[in-house]
Structures are given as C-alpha cells and as structure tokens.
Amino acid sequence: MKLSVTRYKEMKSGGLHGFVDLMVDDLGMVIHGCAYREGSSGMWVALPSRRYEEDGKAKYIGHVGFPERDVYNDFQTTAKEAIERHLASS
Q1: Residues paired with residue 36 on neighbouring β-strands, in sequence order
Q2: Which pTM does this prediction carry?
Q3: Cα distance between residue 81 and residue 48, in whole Å
Q4: How are beta strands 57-62 and 3-13 bridged, if at all?
C-alpha cells in the first residue's frame, strides 16, 4: 500500500499533533480528516469517526475499517512514514 499526504494542518493540543488528508495512491482515494496523535506507544493515525451517545456515554464509530489487524497495522506504519516524509520536506 502506498500513501501520500495531500494536506497537513498542524494543531497541537495534548496528544494531538495535527490533521492530515491521506491519498491511497493505488486507488486515487483520499481519506480526509485523519488525526495525527501521540500516545503512550508513540505516534499513530486516528481515522475519521462519528461521535454518538449510548447509555449517556460518548462512543465513536469509524468511517473506515480494515478486514484484519495486520492490514490495519500496515496502514498505520505506512501512514506514519508518509506523514514523517511530508513533515521533513515542508
């Protein structure tokens, strides 16, 4: 899977570093509004989601999913590499 950054907006707040639009180059598809975050295990990419409430608690449902954990992990690695390349060239 090859990904490239089409837009990056820095926005630092807590663990949030910014928002990024990612192009899945092979498909020509752009995933808008991914959050680039830092957590206890390092940097990661949060995919767009919608907030809703259930039993008085906030929950989130993703707009994009993966069929297997390995595919998700590959996406995370590739997305982080694309973002780091973009930030280094900016």
Answers
A1: 18, 45
A2: 0.87
A3: 19
A4: unpaired
Q: How far is CA 43 from CA 29, 72, 73, 77, 80, in A?
A: 23, 14, 13, 10, 7
Tell me the Cα Rg of the chain.
Answer: 14
Taken as a whole, the chain contains a residue count of: 90
Helix ranges, 1-90 (H)? 69-89
Per-residue pLDDT tens listing for the chain (90 residues): 899 999 999 999 999 999 999 999 999 999 999 999 999 999 999 999 999 999 999 999 999 999 999 999 999 999 999 999 999 998
